[in-house]
Amino acid sequence: MHQTDVIQYIMVAVRNTVECTGACLDWVRG
Q1: Please, which domain of life does this record's source organism belong to (predicted)?
Q2: From CA 3, how far away is CA 15, in angstroms rounded?
Q3: Environment class of residue 15 by beta-carbon count within 10 Å: exposed (0-12), middle (13-18) or buried (19+)?
């Protein structure tokens, strides 16, 4: 894997985690 591929993969993983966390927090506050 190239470094750019790793960075892109990490960025996607972080974005998914942030979106998931935000959705969970919104649901908890509900």
Answers
A1: Eukaryota
A2: 18
A3: exposed
The owner of tokens 């470094």 is: 3
Distance set, CA 10 to CA 3, 5, 15, 17 (Å): 11, 9, 8, 10
Helices (H) and strands (E) counted in the chain, each on its own, are 1, 0
pTM: 0.62
Mean pLDDT of the chain: 94
